[in-house]
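Let's study my pick:
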Amino acid sequence: MQTLREIRRRIRSVHNLAQVTRALEAVAASKVQKAQAAVLATRPYAHRAWEVIVNLAGVHGEPLHPLLTYREPVRSVLMVLFTGDRGLCGAYNQNVLRAALDYSRQLPVPTRYIAVGKWGRDALWRSRADLVAEFHGLPAVPGILDISPVARTAIEEFLEGRTDEVFLAYTDFVNLLQQRPVIRRLLPLRPSDIELQAVSEYVVDMRPVGVADYIYEPSQAAILESVLPRFTELQLYQAALEASASEHAARRMAMRNATDNAGSLLRELTLMRNKARQQSITGELLDIAGGAEVLRQMQGQAS
């Protein structure tokens, strides 16, 4: 059994750890509110932008833009993996990494990666994956300028022919208690497969509606040349917001569970400490009573 000193030392350690987890929970709660507001604000815009692209690119025959070009056969795949820069967020990082690696193993072609987040970068290094680039240090609520380098790298890899398909691996923010890892196609942009695209999944319980006929000025090709790269960047930006909100929500829940577990452990340790103190006091009383009895017997023999 542990000594009273050891139990007291454990109680101090658990109490200090509970203070840390409680502070991390408060910080995560503050960040997740901002990230959730950003996600909910951009989802309708991303969804409507996709409907416009469906109209602009909904033509038959040769694609009007290189980002719409479907290459056959596919020889290489690029995956943009969104994880956090650190842990302490439950199974958030492990889940999205497992989903990305499992999906990559099912592909008949090699997969290269762009890692957004230190945790994913380190995990890919340990697994000896082919890492094209890595980005980290994004703010709690990333802006479009923070995501632009990632988008440029992915677009350049596709346009220069080093990869034939680009996928996003991130965690979709459902609510504060539920986040799910998803794999979505980024390039080529294929309006005919709208159910498979990222933005169609961003808005829960919404489906693309029919769009009106537009009058294009100057032309469809000119508009696509300007809009499609920005829309590709928008998809990456939306994925980053989803991943950020999911990470902070997962960290908040993990720290809350850790704080609750620390409280339960403190109660158990306090009970153990009280029992140890009772045993110590009982032992001392028995020693005193035993000594007094021996002294009484010695006095009786002397008399």
The helical segments are 4-57, 92-106, 118-126, 144-159, 199-202, 220-302.
